[in-house]
Design brief:
mainly alpha, fold of a uncharacterized protein from magnetospirillum magneticum
């Protein structure tokens, strides 16, 4: 479900790749609400529609993103990002797309193509 959501919602996929995965790869495996806020501020330079969002909408996006991460097992309640170890078969399946869907996970396996 996580991969499907990241494919469907580009902002979610970019957050997963550019923030969640990068935090894990840089050995800073914690995620704060401010990380999402910083990410959306940076993205608003390329996506002006983000600047038009009401504060309540922006908070709801952040809340839903963190809830989805927790439900997918990609974020602990204390904000720690656990390293994900995927089975070889799942890694192979996720790696068949270009770019690889492995980019949506906090893992060192495979890597983005």
């Amino acid at each position: 479900m996580w991969v499907a959501a990241c494919r469907r919602y580009a902002l979610l996929g970019e957050f997963a790749e550019e923030v969640v995965r990068e935090h894990m790869l840089l050995l800073t495996p914690s995620l704060r609400l401010q990380d999402f806020d910083s990410f959306t501020r940076e993205k608003s330079l390329w996506h002006p529609e983000l600047t038009a969002l009401a504060d309540t909408t922006r908070r709801k996006l952040r809340q839903n993103t963190f809830r989805m991460l927790r439900e997918a097992g990609l974020l602990m309640d204390d904000g720690v990002i656990p390293t994900v170890f995927l089975s070889p078969r799942l890694e192979e399946l996720l790696g068949t797309r270009d770019p690889s869907d492995l980019r949506f996970f906090p893992t060192t396996q495979g890597g983005a193509r």
